[in-house]
């Protein structure tokens, strides 16, 4: 027994560890990991909702060109070479510039849509049509004088003449770019990408059938092969135009407006700077095809 005046010594026993804090920490980490994975999954779905149909549209339209060259290859080596030069050098050279100029619409439409100025999307679309159509007119001599240009670049006479003839057949396709490219950017900015994908599927199926019909059924030869790619691309342009104008975009399309003719110079500068970037890429690809 201890006396009343004595001081009780503190206990030296070590308390048992409490696992509740470590368990809660692991649960919190697991919760954060699941939350992060869910966010990644949600953002990935949103991204592929935009990118997926756009990729499919590029693959479908490029496949049309490949199919056209394949039909031209069945006609002969000279026909295949002429189609390849006309599509990759003459057509590809202008396609890069027009595609880049239309890409400026992505920035403007995205800003207008985010600011809830929905009517401006239709105005920007019409401005892009005007600018790209004028650019198509300026680039038209490259198609008309393709034969002497190719001869100047050192191509054989027979292939240069046949490539120049194919380039003339591509003139309607050249103006199709001015309609189709802005429409695609206009719809993508509103997440209406499924429409672009389905239209591309239909055009690709039609292209295969029409290619066989024009080349073998009607026996139009190289002219038929060149006309099929023009016909199929115009199907995409007309379908997207009809969808936009006839009720597909009631919030952003308010009809044709004279406001589209205002501020064209600022729009030209923005489109030109965007177009030059892709034009350099087209120059590089054209050089690769030409050298090979």
From TrEMBL:
Residues 1-31 are annotated as: Disordered. It holds the Pfam family MatE. The chain crosses the membrane at residues 55-73, 85-108, 129-150, 162-183, 195-216, 222-246, 267-290. The keyword Zinc does not apply. Keywords: Membrane, Transmembrane, Transmembrane helix. InterPro entries: MATE_fam. Belongs to the multi antimicrobial extrusion (MATE) (TC 2.A.66.1) family. This is Protein DETOXIFICATION 27-like. It comes from Ilex paraguariensis.
């Amino acid at each position: 027994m201890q006396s009343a005046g004595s001081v009780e010594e503190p206990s030296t026993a070590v308390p048992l560890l409490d696992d509740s804090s470590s368990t809660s920490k692991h649960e919190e980490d697991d919760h954060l990991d699941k939350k992060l994975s869910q966010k990644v999954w949600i953002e990935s779905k949103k991204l592929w909702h935009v990118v997926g149909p756009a990729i499919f549209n590029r693959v479908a339209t490029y496949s049309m060109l490949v199919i056209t060259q394949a039909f031209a290859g069945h006609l002969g080596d000279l026909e295949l070479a002429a189609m390849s030069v006309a599509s990759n050098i003459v057509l590809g050279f202008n396609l890069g510039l027009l595609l880049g100029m239309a890409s400026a619409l992505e920035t403007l439409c995205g800003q207008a849509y985010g600011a809830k100025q929905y009517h401006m999307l239709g105005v920007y679309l019409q401005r892009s049509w005007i600018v790209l159509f004028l650019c198509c007119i300026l680039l038209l001599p490259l198609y008309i004088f393709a034969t002497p240009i190719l001869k100047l670049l050192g191509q054989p006479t027979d292939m240069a003449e046949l490539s120049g003839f194919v380039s003339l057949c591509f003139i309607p396709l050249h103006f199709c770019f001015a309609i189709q490219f802005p429409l695609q950017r206009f719809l993508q900015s509103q997440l209406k990408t499924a429409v672009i994908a389905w239209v591309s599927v239909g055009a690709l199926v039609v292209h295969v059938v029409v290619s066989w019909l024009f080349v073998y059924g009607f026996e139009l030869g190289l002219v038929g092969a060149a006309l099929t790619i023009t016909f199929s691309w115009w199907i995409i342009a007309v379908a997207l135009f009809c969808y936009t104008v006839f009720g597909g975009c009631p919030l952003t399309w308010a009809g044709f407006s004279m406001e589209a003719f205002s501020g064209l110079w600022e729009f030209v500068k923005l489109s030109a700077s965007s177009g030059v970037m892709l034009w350099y890429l087209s120059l590089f690809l054209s050089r690769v095809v030409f050298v090979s």
